[in-house]
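Forgive a beginner's question, but would it be possible to get a protein, spelled out as residues, together with the matching structure tokens, please?
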Amino acid sequence: MSFGFCLLIRFVKLRHPLPAKMGRSCGLFMCPFLFLSLFQMGVLELRTEMGRLTLSPMEICVIPCGIRFSVDASESSRGYVFELFKGHFTLPSLGPIGANGLANPRDFLYPTACYDTGDESLGQWTLITKFCGSFFTAHTPASPFDVVAWHGNYAPYKYDLERFCAVGSVSYDHLDPSIYTVLTCPSEIPGEAIADFVIFPPRWMCMEHSFRPPYFHRNVMSELMGMIHGSYDAKTGFEPGGVSLHPCMIAHGPDAETFEKASKADTSKPEKFEGGLAFMFETSAVLKVPEAAREAAWRDREYQKCWEGLPRLFDPTTPGDLVAAAALPFAVSQS
């Protein structure tokens, strides 16, 4: 199994990309980390103690810490892996949304027990364990996939992101992207998550007299974004399989091209975005990028140039601009 660069923080580790292949007689045991995988290309066959899961692009998989698993890819595959060192992912509170919306519990799928029998269960198996940042190996005389039946709520699961039920503003303003949260890991501080997994799905945008793309902002959360397919509606040139990082309190927002287009848009007409799927891992901790990622040949060293040429549109001498300044697309937010 090989990995690309990883991003290290206090409670979270992110890996990208993830080409994966493990032999038949090999199992992986993550302890004490929770594992969230999001695949951008290819199909993966995941074996766990509780059964098998087939993962395709647009699907995520969560493996709780301590669960043994193996991965097999019949074709070239890559994706993103998120390791959570503290807490567990859960569905966000829907609050005034009510009983339904966002990621509905009925759409999460769990494996059915599937165990090795006969000759395939015999022979030496290698068990790879990750503990305290290091990998260890051990050998067992029989398959670790020997669970005949199971019940309970501590098990791996998968979710199809195309099942996400998006909500949004039907009057004015671009709402905080927390309304697109699929899974969250709360912290002991109310309103501050250890980690959020957020997607930007196909959706209708009908806000009037508003700047519809994400507004320019700073955030106490660190944001790592990636692309599964297509394009991102707030930035041109963001390729599938890529990743961008906006650390805590670093200002960012749409590029100059997107800003100009959105500023001139006729917001009396609704618009449907269905050109791609982007996602975001958001965390209250500060990301540390290793040297291998900083010095990589494929790193975009001119990323900041996407904001060159942003026009200064505010004119205090123009009637109405002082009033409109209260609605300028800039904010400092907590989530």
Q: What stands out?
A: Helices lie at 256-263, 291-294, 321-324. The first strand starts at residue 5 and ends at 8. The mean pLDDT is 82. The CA atoms of residues 94 and 304 lie 36 Å apart.
